[in-house]
Amino acid sequence: MASTSNSQRPSSSSNSKWRYDVFLSFRGKDTRHTFTDFLYGALDRGNINAFRDDEKLPRGEEISPELLKAIEGSRFAIIVFSKNYVDSKSCLDELVKIMECEEEKGQKVFPIFYHVEPTEVRNQSGTYGEAFKNHEKNADEEKKKKIEEWRAALRKAGQLNGFHLLNGSEYKFIEHIIGEIGILIPKSIHVGENIVGIDENLRQVKLLIDAKSDEVSMVGIYGIGGIGKTTIAMVIYNDMLDHFKHHSFLENVREGSKNNHGLLQLQEKLLCDILMDKTIKLSNVDEGVEMIKSRRYLGKVLIVLDDVDCPKKLRFLADSPEWFGAGSIIILTTRNKRCLNVNKAYSLYEAKGLAKNKALELFSWNAFKQHHPTDNYVDLCNRALHHAKGLPLALVVLGSSFFQRDEEYWESTLDRLKTIPLDDIQKVLQISYNGLDDRCKKVFLDIVCFFKDWGEKTVTKILEGCRFHPKTELKELDDKCVISISDGFIRMHDSLQEMGWAIVREKYPENPGKWSRLWEYEDIESVLTTNMGTENIEGMFLNMSTTAEPIKLHVEAFKNMNRLRLLKVGPYMVRLSQDFELPSRELTYLE
User: What is the per-residue burial (b if ≥16 Cβ within 10 Å, else e) of 157-172?
Assistant: First the structure.
């Protein structure tokens, strides 16, 4: 029997009406320390919040109010029908309540037939029949009525599609269950802490969405980088997630679709998300368009396309309301208003910067870790706000750079800001970079050029090989808000990445051979084919491109790169000459 436990954490869907993702109903005597324990552990590792009992809690004949709330507050129920499940009156009462929630609340129920046949459950035969004979002994009218409720619930549960294990690997069986259930659970997007001043933007966007209509709502949010477009889209997505069975949030469309191969992968992810099928593969982008359009029968979908940079990409992802079922909501964010001017299906909203009071609050959370500045810093804060222009990203980055700094540092930094044109936001953001020590600057530029969206553990291992202390440097960069580390991955805002690229190119804008890092195919090809590489080059990542020709590498091309420490070339991107060898003794990472 399942019961309450104080150790349960809140559901992974923070804005959800569901308290738990899964309620586990099982017979403790049969499977508590074996199958159900393994299943619970796998659910937890899959970030699926399962409610199970605490065996230390006292047992009672009646289901407690807390347990009833746990059943009602669970998105799904998993019932482990084992040989002795129906021996327990408490398990049978749980089952009745679960089947009520399935009918009245739309709770999805998954029976697991664990070494029993579904027919035994449906017909109460075999060991289940023997158990009911015991229940029926000396039963009064009230108990007979309850027994009939139990039988009805078993008949209904036994007819549901579920999972059946008689023989075979329990590990593989559990992995299959996790895969099937995990894909059905809406996962809210992590937005971050101290979200300030977003309410008016949210209100205006929601006015453009007719959530109660059968019409398809298509809304485009546009504005400069760092204004908060993605944050607005994330919050709306999280707020509406519970009302959609089919949904997808496509991040970084611009970065992920630089060629047809990337666009194909985005189509595959979109279809995998909305069809809840991880195995979908496409041959070409035209096939992807037809498949997206052909899935109108699914009903309404919720889709966010984040950071779309050109109209062409919309034509392959979400071009028309006719592609989607009634009641669907499609939201895109873009810096390029032309995307929306060309495609008239989208309603337009320009994201607004923060009003002064909200800008001060957001800045204060990052500079002072409270919602207002300390008294002797009010004037200094107002000077900083003048340069941030209500731009949330600038407020966060500038505020973080001032955290725990004395007034002299503030004055010096603000004096430097005076020399920066008010419309040059990259230069404003660069103030945070200038305040880093040399080792943090190097790590920051490595992330900008090579490691954005990579796993933290992988990057840490590579940087340790370069004789950095990445746990220290990554924490410093995270504290300064120039990167963020979430779910084990290193993230970075596009505007900060563009600032970093500008820093790398700054001294020699027309001579990539003198840059410290190379990441674009055209620049790498130019340097390697003309033997223009210099000792400045510390890293070179030649990423996969479906249209690029392989580059033939000669030892001469690397002759002067004696500080090269990071080198990655995509498959089929290079041809090596017979005499090829790398002269650099600094090389730490080669792929």
Answer: bbebebbebeeeeeee
